[in-house]
Amino acid sequence: MASIVKRLKGNKQARKEHMDVGNYKNKQRTLVFSSRGIVHRDRHLIADLRDLLPHARKDTKLDTKDDFKQIPEIAEMKSCNNVIFFEARKHKDLYMWLSRCPGGPTIKFLVTNVHTMSEIKLTGNCLKGTRPILQFDQSFNDTGDGVVMKEMLSQAFGSPKGHPKIKPFVDHIFSFFYTKGRVFFRNYQVSYDGNDGTKSEGEPLLVEIGPRFTLTPIKIFSSSFGGNVIWENNNYISPNAIRAVMKAKAKNNFMARNDHKRQRQNYLESNQEQADEFSNLFA
């Protein structure tokens, strides 16, 4: 884990050394695409991320289920250093692969609690093509896997300075919160509440824009979309296991209700009401 962090920080330092004001030399690009079988909400999430990342590039949907070794080759053809790949399974589950190409590492996440921009109708807004400020929770520095995730997220979501499609000012913040073993993503607008009514002065305010989603880390691999597993989340439970437990529980409840109905019917048959001999006494 320490060697992975050292290598990622080396990449970050190399990018800083090649920075030049006015010239675009930090040519960092992020490939954002998905597999086939993705549902409409996840497709809108990918579209929102592409709009928020001016240095993002897109590609056609990958028609494979298990073999992801061709993704680094696709990233090389697209001249991309980072890859955000969304894998859809059973039209229910969404996984996000975050990789540094071509040497790695790669982090596999489970994406849950997805809310797109058009879905939640938040009041915040930002100009398309502006650079975001990346804000990370202090909890990322407490563990080795958190440090790796912080470096990977900063390199993939951080827009390089001097990019031709990036406007030279900042008006929104990408916030990442690492708590209870999950990473929460939020996007906020930097607004000002001025006393003169122009809202150009005063204390800055944060207004949420969207989208929002939650990432549950599963594994960290040593290379790009493969290699040895250098970290694994022992508290992770797959959605298939959760659905199997819920299905077994529902089946047990159904069987319990049927048993109760059967017992009630047997009781009524064995305890039939006797005819009352005095029923016609006052007729």
Basic shape: elongated
CATH architecture of the largest domain: 3-Layer(aba) Sandwich
- Our measurement of the CA-to-CA distance between the termini, rounded to an integer number of angstroms, reads 94 Å
Number of alpha- plus pi-helical segments? 6
In CATH terms, the superfamily of the largest domain is Brix domain
Major sheet description: 11 strands, mixed
Count of distinct strands: 11
Classify the helix fraction into a percent range.
Answer: 25-40%
Number of domains: 2
Label the structural class: alpha+beta
Radius of gyration: 27 Å
Question: How would you briefly describe this protein structure?
Answer:
The chain has helices spanning 2-17, 40-52, 71-77, 117-120, 144-157, 239-270, and strands at residues 30-34, 56-57, 82-89, 93-100, 106-115, 130-136, 167-179, 182-192, 204-208, 212-223, 226-232.
Explain this structure to me?
With 283 residues, the chain is α+β, with helices and mostly antiparallel strands. It has 2 domains: 235 residues, Brix domain (Rossmann fold, 3-Layer(aba) Sandwich); 32 residues. The chain contains 6 helices and 11 strands. Strands 1, 2, 3, 4, 5, 6, 7, 8, 9, 10 and 11 form an 11-stranded mixed beta sheet that branches. α1 packs parallel to α5. The chain is elongated and about 110 Å long.
